[in-house]
Amino acid sequence: MPELPEVEITARRLGAAVVDLTVESMSAPGMVVMKTLSPRLEVLCGARIVAVGRIAKMVTIGFEPLEGPGLTLLVHLMSAGRLQVFEKRASLRDRASRILVRLDSGAELRLREFGTKQRAWAKLLPTADLGAEEMVASLGPEAWPAPDPEALATALRRRGHLHSLLRNQRLIAGIGRSWVDEILWEARLSPFKKGLDLSDGDLVAIHAALQRLDAAIELYEQRIGALVPDKMPIPLQVHRRQGEPCPRCGTTIAAIHYAERITCYCPEEQTAGKVLADRRLSRLLK
Ligand SMILES: [Zn+2]
């Protein structure tokens, strides 16, 4: 699932590949992918790509159309979407294609989505309106670069537990289910610590732990070439590592299973030695 570091490297690699290229044609074979009807994608024919960026877990692609004001395509990859540039054009039979942008260089920018569910989405908006768009306007501060501990106090000292507060894009933007486990492990804090119980020391620890995002981006800079691979080498040490030894203290990493998700933590360092109730097991016991 692409989160802030994965979307950041995607935006950087896309930018290097497509900025200054011109759109020859554009289509959205994934019928439900476009969440806006107007302007229509056809207005981008002949447009120059002027910028590629990232907002939270979304990619922005800026266009300068032949006529009218600048437009931005705001893309959310959700759990299984990928934005990649290919030298050759896709066969129309590629069922994973959601948006195809044919470029004057002969290359093609593709939004593809794996699996059967169509969840990835895009909106085409006047660039001037981007900041007011609801998905953008409602965001909290970006998780990277890390907000200072005072800003984290404002974001996180509230009802709810850390595992859900840190993933709430309205409070702090860019973290999802993978990186939240890593950040909480790094900070040695329980996923179920209450936001209202956070000490100043806890906030300093979260601030420091957010450096993991920075380290991940640096790693991707070294490891990922021009084409962002379908499966990224995500440097996770705790998430989905249940049963393995904690890389810091050797205690077996524990997990709480939900329907489609999982939360992993080190019981020794994060929950005072306590292994938390597994929701899956408690449901079976009811
Ligand atoms: Zn540990």
What's the pLDDT, averaged over the residues? 93
Instruction: Give me the strand/helix succession.
Output: HEEEEEEEEHHHHHHEEHH
Helicity, in percent? 25-40%
Major pleated sheet = 4 strands, antiparallel
**Structure class:** alpha+beta
What is the fold named in CATH at topology level of the largest domain?
Helicase, Ruva Protein, domain 3
Q: Reading side by side through the largest sheet, how are the strands ordered?
A: 1-6-7-5
Give the DSSP E fraction (strand runs of 2 or more residues): 15-25%
Segments where pLDDT lies below 50 for 5+ residues? Answer: none
Gross geometry: elongated
Distance between the termini: 32 Å
Name the CATH class of the largest domain. Answer: Mainly Alpha
**What's the alpha carbon Rg, rounded to whole Å?**
21 Å
Q: Number of helix segments? A: 9
Number of domains: 2
Annotated CATH architecture of the largest domain: Orthogonal Bundle
Number of strands: 10
Query: Which hetero ligands occur in this complex?
Result: zinc ion
